[in-house]
Amino acid sequence: MGTCGIPGPVGDGQRSAALLREWAHRHGPTLDRARETLRTRAHWSPYPEDADGYGPGAAAAAKTALAALRGQVFHLGQPGQDGLIGPAPAEGGERSPYGPDLEIAYPHHDPDAVLGAMRRAMPRWREAGVTARAAVCVEILARINAASHEFALAAEHTSGHNPVMAFHAGAVHAQDRGLEAVAQAVEEQTRLPSSFVWRKPMPDGEDFALEKTFTLRPRGVSFLIGNSVFPTWNGYPGLFASLATGNPVLIKPHPRAVLPLALTVRTVRQVLSEAGFDPDLVCLAVERPGEELARRLAVHSDVRIVDYSGTTGFGDWLRRNATQARVFTSTSAVNSLLIESTDDYRGMLANLAFGLALYSGQLCTSPQNLLIPRDGVATDEGHKSFGRVVADLDDTLGTLLADPADAVSVLGALLSPEVLARVDKAASGALGTVAVAPRPVVHPDHPDAVVRTPAVVVLDAARPGDLATLSTEWLGPVYFAVAVDSAAAGTELLARTAREHGSLSAGAWTVSPEAQAALEEACSEAGVMLSFNLMGHWYITQSAVYSDLHGTGMNPAADAVYCDSAFVTGRFHAVGVRRHRAMS
Amino acid sequence: MGTCGIPGPVGDGQRSAALLREWAHRHGPTLDRARETLRTRAHWSPYPEDADGYGPGAAAAAKTALAALRGQVFHLGQPGQDGLIGPAPAEGGERSPYGPDLEIAYPHHDPDAVLGAMRRAMPRWREAGVTARAAVCVEILARINAASHEFALAAEHTSGHNPVMAFHAGAVHAQDRGLEAVAQAVEEQTRLPSSFVWRKPMPDGEDFALEKTFTLRPRGVSFLIGNSVFPTWNGYPGLFASLATGNPVLIKPHPRAVLPLALTVRTVRQVLSEAGFDPDLVCLAVERPGEELARRLAVHSDVRIVDYSGTTGFGDWLRRNATQARVFTSTSAVNSLLIESTDDYRGMLANLAFGLALYSGQLCTSPQNLLIPRDGVATDEGHKSFGRVVADLDDTLGTLLADPADAVSVLGALLSPEVLARVDKAASGALGTVAVAPRPVVHPDHPDAVVRTPAVVVLDAARPGDLATLSTEWLGPVYFAVAVDSAAAGTELLARTAREHGSLSAGAWTVSPEAQAALEEACSEAGVMLSFNLMGHWYITQSAVYSDLHGTGMNPAADAVYCDSAFVTGRFHAVGVRRHRAMS
Predict the structure, then answer these.
(1) Which B residues, 279 through 318, put their C-beta within 8 Å of a C-beta on chain A?
(2) Does B533 reach chain A within 8 Å, measured CB to CB?
(3) Which partner for B86 in A250, B105, B157, B352 could form a disulfide, CB atoms 3.0-4.6 Å apart?
(4) Cα A578-A581-A584 angle, rounded to 5 deg
(5) What are the residues whose beta carbons fall under 8 Å from the beta carbon of B232, sequence distance 6 or more?
(6) Quick check: ipTM above 0.90?
(7) What's the whole-model pTM score?
(8) pLDDT, tens digit (0-9, with 9 covering 90-100), for B36-84
(9) For residue B137, is the peptide bond before it cis, meaning its omega torsion is within 30 degrees of 0?
(10) Does the beta carbon of A556 lie under 8 angstroms from any beta carbon of chain B?
(11) Cα–Cα dist A579/A211, whole Å
(12) Is B575 close to A530, i.e. CB distance below 8 A?
């Protein structure tokens, strides 16, 4: 096998300093605009969502670039290499949910050698200061943005995203999340004056004076544990928040989704080197099958920050065991929406069907439980019974996903055998009556991909067994149409599920001011973002970077909020120095 | 026994609304100035430090007011009374460190009845909004400020403060800490817009729009565990941060220092009632001897925030067990200062002696370990040997504390038999050679008060036994003159002690730029505030509210910082609501 790596540090101090100045100048307005947008919460992004806007040859070039990785070792120039992971799946290599093995091998490193190098790299980065670090971070994001087609392809072939989802959540929106974290980090790091004179008038009329400084001190090595679903979107907030506040970052990718974070680390190391910093500030720790590296590294005394998105079980373990670190977690969510009434029945069905189909329900914000009063729903087309609503949803899904080429542009490939097992279980009738049967879809370009349309199973909130079923996260295209006694009962169930099992996004279709007020109160109390009467181009699954907060910290789904001040202030500290100044 | 209570809620809606408007108008400029000062970190306070500035009869009136409490039950009108605490010390009553029993009885309440009332009081307070809550908080602080002489007397006769310390740390500086927390709470609660329209241009040229709101949601009941040393100064940050962010606050005072917090709660409840809020938002939970109420309530499912200042042992217990709550702790500290060189030897000795004498070393910022190179110190009066420096310190302390009336105006009464036992142990020579022997001082006005001048014991950093001694907190007038090999060795020891055992304030006298640079780096790394070459009117023990940060969150002494953004952002959450808006 050959190697595909990056050059070592440039080592030309003058050139690096000039580059830093240039980046600070070039990216200053972007950063200012991002900080301003965090205040206004308006729509904005420096990273175009339209894939065609990246030049006519960009998509083809990305394909060529990723094809060139096949059969190679993805070298990053990190210290302490002691083996190889992959390329065969049995040796830890990745296989695309769309079929082929990626055939990329990754070096394995001795974690202690890597951590030692990271510690050594830290002082220079810390002393570079807020502005220089932010400039480097925004330059990294600009390079990643320029390679968005590459990142999108990597997202498709690791997480099973469809092309649009991959270009958005896998590339540009992840970049937005990163920039948002950099902007918030700059905001928080510039709140204290770095030096000032404190004068206190004394009873004798003279001023007593102290010269004071505040020094910001990063906590230490930040450990990012990637997931398989959105490794960049869920990973960039912690990566850039830690990096911008002066901490080195060690990234352990999910074994099924290494490539997106390997491409990220390659870019980060390249930019750090060009700017004259030690690239070992950011390292990748790919693990051997069964190595359980996350469990070992999360409790390492050098690790002072942990970012994790994944299962509730491991999140709880981290909070109990990684007590030497500040831990930020985003874990399982059981999201609900209530269908009470609507003045646009067709619009509601269309929006709902698209939301269920999107990426085959594999988002942490997918609305698993559809709560519908057993007496039915008032609509602009008259009263609709519970059964009628579910049947119309079936029809709407059928139309939306009738053509395989259209269907695979909305759905995603199922990212693991576990997801497929859940769909099969729902389809078997074991959970309840199957109201919408999942269908296999043959992908026109990837015949080996496992693609399924959504399954909707009917449950009844009055049955304890059904309550247990809907209270568990069923990641994937498994949805429950749940009969509830009333809108009030549905609101109560939605809030209870969020409070007890965690939730990141709740929705409702209702024209009733009373039902809206009750839902607002319940979601405020349970700490879950609520969307009313979504139509057209926006879905309950979506979180607008710079505008929406992702998570609230109030229910078990997440104690990390993208991106509030607490998400960055926990990553650094301020230390004061006071000096006596002779009276003048 | 009679009763001294407060009237019930006023219940006149119109009058309450007018009062709230008036307070918001009157206190707006104070709050704006406090917020501005948190940015500039300049000297400022709305609460005059000069006790004489509170009117000619204020001190006498305070004495009369507190005398009137003798033989009374301190009723606060809380629900669920189920017994009495005190007035005899054997029944849980307080005894002044200056001698007399306070002879005040406090009602005991069923905690569940109190928590139930607090939960019911919460919605109205939450919905009052940021401005109204802040206005009420500043009005409370204004009333407390007007009664500063009363609070100072209470601090003397519970914590053993001398009159000046009591007026400052027990009254006005505690009020400053409270206002600082309110200002920071307003700052953080006004960072998100409460409502706005988010517009995204669509490819068809139309704008897609969502109406969005953010609702701030307080976490829930806040539980404040008071200490015996500075119940108001350490208590007001948490009390006012929680109250200003919408949370009810349950206060469990230290059994030896109930009165300062009882007076506080009385004022808070009075102001809340006048403003038309349920006074049960803030309740006092006095405990029976041996009841261990803190252990029980800190893990109560209703309790969502815990503020604690006290021992490291109980702080660790809280962090491990009160996992349902956000826990803010400030625990034991082992503070050091290094004496390397000075250009004002006499000024240094005077500043140091005063810092050691102040409140008999019972501050969490008292400098326990005086690190002195064994080869001595360069000064403007020539080289001084280790022994000479210690002997000169003895002389300076002797002069400062020669006259009993002068001495008791700087020292404090020892607040517990445990403190006295530490002084006696130091005096016995069991810890090391006694270089400065502690002397009993007969208080001219309080002959029963236990007052001691500082003890200084000589230790050697090269002896493991001595290292163990200096690595423990010896709260009280017990100091160690520690021989170190060099300034560098002292710096290393200072940082190691801070890192491993916690420290809130470090100091140094040195004119060497190299030694200063090394100390700055070491203290930045260990996370401890550092003061250089203090002379005259400022001491290592002092923390200037609105200017200095108290604690860094980086070493075991404190994970709460008075008052950074994290101290308030952990007390509330933001929940978004998004509403579809028809295209226009």
Answers:
(1) none
(2) yes
(3) B105
(4) 150
(5) B151, B155, B170, B171, B174, B260, B261, B264
(6) yes
(7) 0.95
(8) 999 999 999 999 999 999 999 999 999 999 999 999 999 999 999 999 9
(9) no
(10) no
(11) 5
(12) yes
